[in-house]
Predict the 3D structure of the following.
Amino acid sequence: MDPVIIIGTGMAAYTLAREFRKRDLETPVLLISEDDGRSYPKPMLSNALTKGKTAEQVAMFDAATMATKLNADIMTHTVVETIDPNAKTIRLGNGTSLVYDKLVLAVGANPIRIPIEGNASADILSVNNLADYTIFRDKLIDAQRVAIIGPGLIGCEFANDLLNVGTAVSIIGPSALPMDALLPEPIAEELKLTLASDGVDWHLETTTESINYADDGYELSLTNGDIVHADIVISAVGLRANIKLAESAGLNINRGIVTDQYLQTSQSDIYALGDCAEVSGHNLLFIAPIMAAAKALASTLSAEPKAVKYPAMPVAIKTPSYPLITAPPARNSKGEWHFEKAESGFGIKGLFVGADDALLGFVLSGDTVSEKSVLSKQLPDLLG
């Protein structure tokens, strides 16, 4: 019997394997990982410092333990170089070819790297997996100042985490406000002020021109003429779906690997899941969509086809200095924002309302986050 092969061992891959095993105890399952295959909750990487977690403490199980739990084979430190959809084979970096019955791409997303000049540009860190976090935490032992390039969600989460352990933080980015792609202006402005009062040194409406070694660490020269000094530099400018393998196999791609609601790609018996997948136009880099998609795909792989459905899935952002829950309206939604200050004075409720007074999205901050449950029930499904 040919196996179900899952490329990847992140949360999407392991969740799928776990859900599949609930339905099918017999079909062989093989997971292939480019790293050591440890299972860990990736969202914890941006608040692990506050929780006092080392990389070893963030990790839950090693690959051998996961193989036993899942009754699966797991190949670690292995690269899949090509897919042949016609022959239903994959070729590994060592030249070995493997036949699959069903193939799932759960290859995640990679950090976007923007070109920056200077003799220290190669030292810029991205923290996108457990190995990255290990390097970051080791370097942090002797560091007092961290510069974060990117004022978006991940940049702000890491900034808050660093502030909580007494590290000075500078955030650099071209936008006028933090998280401007997720937050309406009044809430983004209040986030900026709150983090500033906690110690964030904002350098907005500018970009990093060069990074060079200095006697006291790194010197970042910004396009507005400012100079920022840091012991560690982190790039947090966003993620881009890992589509290279799918593209080389002739699969349809867009922002991610294009799939239908059954997670099937443009080739039969090949599926995509997680951060790399664009499911019926949705490329959602959050945990709730991954869990919903993994359960649906597990059913499909078990000969009970099930389309994934996405209900409204508000996202809690890990900025405890200024709690945030966001359920942004769908792109091209027609409506307008209405804002209400929290009775306590801390936080703002933002409601995006359509022409028929229907609630299409919301952002809650500060003490208004307690209204999440009530408001979530009023939102339309993302994907029905």
About this structure: The CA atoms of residues 55 and 134 lie 6 Å apart. The first helix runs from residue 11 to 23.
